[in-house]
Prior knowledge:
With 370 residues, this protein is mostly beta strands. Helices cover 2% and strands 52% of the residues. It has one helix at residues 63-68; strands spanning 6-10, 15-17, 28-38, 48-53, 58-60, 74-81, 86-93, 95-101, 112-113, 122-128, 131-136, 141-143, 150-152, 155-161, 167-174, 180-183, 186-191, 194-202, 205-212, 224-227, 230-235, 239-243, 249-253, 264-265, 271-277, 282-288, 295-297, 305-310, 317-321, 328-335, 340-349, 351-362.
Amino acid sequence: MVMKKxxxxxxxxxALIFTSCNSDxxxxxxxxxxxxxxxxxxxxxxxxxxxxxxxxxxMSENVFFxxxxxxxxxxxMDGIYNSxxxxxxxxxxxxxxEIIDITNGRTATDPITDxxxxxxxxxxxxLGENYIFVSNAGSDYVVDNLTGVYEYTNxxxxxxxxxxNNLVKTIEVxxxxxxxxxxxxxxxxxxxxxxxxxxxxGNDQFSIETTLRDEDFAGPVKYxxxxxxxxxxSIPGKGIWAVSPTGNTVNTYxxxxxxxxxxxxxANNYIWxxxxxxxxxxxxxxxxxxxxxxxxxxxxxxxxxxxxxxxPVTGNIYYSEANGYTSNSTLLVYDPDSDQxxxxxxxxVGAYRYLFFSYLTYAxxxxxxx
Length: 370
């Protein structure tokens, strides 16, 4: 007899709890799992999902393929899950959102595809008020002749209903749409020109309200974290911009960021990022404290660091070495209390993002997420 799982979920931003109704008094086992999204190579369609169990330090490889008998795709961009354990995995080749059971990678329903024009060169996604929001770079671009950097000039946000996965609307937001935050019935979109604010008016009505920008600390915004009603936005080449949701600059922090400016906020409201010095061939993981402004390296220096995440259960730091981005990554698990790497594992190609969750199963059941 297969019993229902009892979910106790932890998200990046907050703890979410969902418990199935039952009166069973049998002992339960808590499974603390790290879902590793491996980006893969664009031309080889080898993006994948691995699941790592924190207590047993065991790794389950390529669970999406094993559960569904087809490859996830190429260039996995982002992932998120809801309080029912439904995961949304964003892919850019082909452009689609796979909808899965986050505990085992099995598809829960048909994917959202680009057939309706809502997905085009996808970037990031988030959830909010029964909607799925996706940032898209779009197809149009210009190339800077000096730097070779691409600017996607007609990027947009696509909005889907989380009830039936149908496209509700697309909204153009300017150049280089990237990260998304949804809070207080507003969607905040990182773009080249600042943070575009989209107001959600109800009844599937959305409109651009304003663009947040500090002319004294201006630059393309890449990633954002919301902590205590303050948005912390990365601006590579400048640092971290702390801004209120109404556009008032709270503070600016001229710290060194990586080229993509990735930020990860942990359960204790610290922000983590990756910095690679390509000339020197070294990488490091940095920890930023919004309360004090301190910014310091958190793990031993290495090469080709490509991702970072922090477990809300153990506090361990997860990061990966890309190994040239063509072969499997090396996952490293660092315990800040003992100040050492406590485990290494082989992950997929380009280990890129981490989703942390926990769930209970009955001790006498063989059912497992792994």
